[in-house]
Design a protein that fits this description.
Strand content: 25-35%
Helix content: 25-40%
Structural class: alpha/beta
Distance between the termini: 29 Å
Radius of gyration: 16 Å
Number of strands: 9
């Protein structure tokens, strides 16, 4: 999808949601400049792996296409600076779990400054130690294969959104594949559920 098509798509969305989305993107631009993240790159190693920033317009497009508003609880596993969670909060209740305290603090500040703090929350911790199965929609942008997540979700009945072109989760079947420019997102469901 090119930028002209994305703009046309955005015009169709709820005006309040679009205004808040613009506020979120501006907030992140400002915070990334203030914190020096732009100079060092939108990439960082954490205690559990690597974090890389997602592209806000693409995430917004994917969430609209997937009708994210139909989920009760969206949970981002390894939420980094919280951009994806803040965008998800435009559609549904959203929670991010991040092990890096600095990134988690940045996410909390961005949610407050971006005007979505009432709809989003962040937990500083290891998602492998938390009850992630309570969410009906999980999201991850994996930096390595996902067998640990798949093992924890053997009996879980929800949707798993994987950002990026790689690392399909074992035991899950691809239901929907989306593309926006060079970015990819795939919606998976337990292969038992089909």
């Amino acid at each position: 999808m090119n930028s002209k098509a994305w703009r046309a798509e955005a015009l169709q969305c709820n005006r309040a949601r679009c205004r808040t989305f613009v506020a979120i993107t501006r907030t992140y631009r400002r915070l990334h400049e203030e914190t020096g993240i732009l100079k060092t790159g939108l990439y960082r190693l954490t205690a559990q792996g690597a974090w890389a920033s997602s592209r806000a317009p693409h995430v917004f497009f994917f969430f609209r296409k997937l009708r994210l508003h139909r989920y009760r609880c969206f949970l981002d596993l390894g939420s980094g600076d919280g951009m994806v969670v803040c965008i998800a909060g435009l559609f549904t209740r959203a929670l991010g779990i991040e092990i890096d305290p600095e990134l988690c603090g940045l996410a909390q500040r961005a949610a407050r400054d971006g005007g979505v703090a009432a709809r989003v929350s962040f937990v500083c911790g290891d998602y492998r130690q938390l009850p992630i199965h309570r969410a009906d929609c999980l999201y991850c942008y994996p930096d390595k294969p996902l067998p640990a997540i798949a093992d924890r979700l053997r009996t879980w009945r929800g949707d798993l959104l994987v950002y990026g072109p790689h690392f399909p989760p074992p035991g899950f079947a691809a239901i929907t594949r989306l593309a926006c420019g060079r970015e990819r997102m795939v919606l998976y469901r337990s292969a038992d559920e089909g």
